[in-house]
Amino acid sequence: MERRHLPKVQPAPVPAPLRRKGAAPAIRKWLVVPAVGEEHKGEFGKHQIMEMTGLPARDLRVLDPVLSYPSTILGRDRAIVVRLEHVKAIITASEVLVPDHEGVLLTSFLVDLRARLSLPDAERSTNPANDRGDGMEQGNQGDGPRLALCRVGSTKIVPFEFKALEVCLEHACKYLESETRSLEKEAYPALDKLGRKVSTLNLDDVKNLKGRLVNLSGKVQKVRDELEHLLDDDMDMSEMYLTRKLSFQRLSQSLSRADSNKYASVDHDDDDGYNREDEYHDDEAESGHESSTYVKPDIDELEMLLEAYFVQIDGTLNTLYHIREYADDTEDYINIMLDEKQNQLLQMGVMLMAATVVVTAGIVVVSLFGMNIHIDLMKVPETPEMARIKNLKFWETTLGTVVGCVGIYLIAIFAGRKSKILQ
């Protein structure tokens, strides 16, 4: 009996895990613009960005190109996350990370960012928010080293993160303002044209413009609400002082090392003096903690910066509001015109109906004479004189019927106008 050799069954290949359609890639291209040095490009994963910036994965979702997040500014411990329309960036105390930097809309933003960050630290910013008085230097002198703002001669040093944030705000506000001006140039002529002539083409143009108006108003309103939210919350603004927090951390580390060295050199046998010193430092720390609890954060510089762009974006929103008001007024005017036309059509219908009723009365008269009745008008004339008289009576009856119908119609129209049913 022959032994049959069965073919070896090859194991089925394990399919590679399919990536969800439309999902963002795990590694993205980033442009890193440092405060000191030259910029460089690189591909970083999500976990690498989290290690570099200290941001949680939840905050990185704000910059996801697949997800449609609204405009957001988040202040965290080591970084600021900015998403203002197409402007996306992660700002730290020493560098700016821009994702998807190869987009066409980001070209001018990157040019402005490079130009602004390349300026020397002691140079005064060109934005009006930095020229609104000397209130930014106010604050307690005992708050420790303040790198947020200090004077060098007669100039001011602006923190690196505020320079980058100012570029983001400026570019987003300029972009929304240019879109608003473009819409304004198209909206007013289109609305005036529709007011002069209501047609399908004009209605389609105004419909498209109104859709753009609603979309743009939503974007501007979200940016305005985000700035207003930051201005209302002092703690959120205080979290955005990355340079100052970094300087305080370094100061605390140096003080802790100095204290450790100091306590190491103290004679360990002097327990009483050591305990008294501990009590003194504990009381001092407790009193310092109690006093710092009620001190308002020094946020004057950032507050004035945000207020300047809040006023600018609020002006853009007011322009869009005026365009919407003009569109609503045009729509009301068109509705009034259409109502007037409809009233005219109704009046014409009433007049035609009255004419129909009057003509029907004349038809009734004609039908009566068309019946087989024995009257002199229906008899065949025997002589030419009788034929002439019969013809005369025919025209008298016809003219009488027509004049009677017209008179009844005029009386009906006069009664309608007198009762103000017809105009």
UniProtKB/TrEMBL annotation:
Keyword Transmembrane in record: yes
Organism of provenance: Zizania palustris (Northern wild rice)
PANTHER family in UniProt: MAGNESIUM TRANSPORTER MRS2-E, RNA SPLICING PROTEIN MRS2, MITOCHONDRIAL
GO molecular function annotation: magnesium ion transmembrane transporter activity
Location(s), subcellular: Membrane
Origin organism lineage: Eukaryota, Viridiplantae, Streptophyta, Embryophyta, Tracheophyta
Region feature Disordered, mapped onto this chain: 122-145, 259-293
Keyword Ion transport: yes
InterPro entries, alphabetized: MRS2-like
Coiled coil feature spans: 206-233
TM segment ranges: 350-374, 394-415
Protein known as: Magnesium transporter
UniProt function note: Magnesium transporter that may mediate the influx of magnesium.
Keywords attached to this entry: Coiled coil, Ion transport, Magnesium, Membrane, Transmembrane, Transmembrane helix, Transport
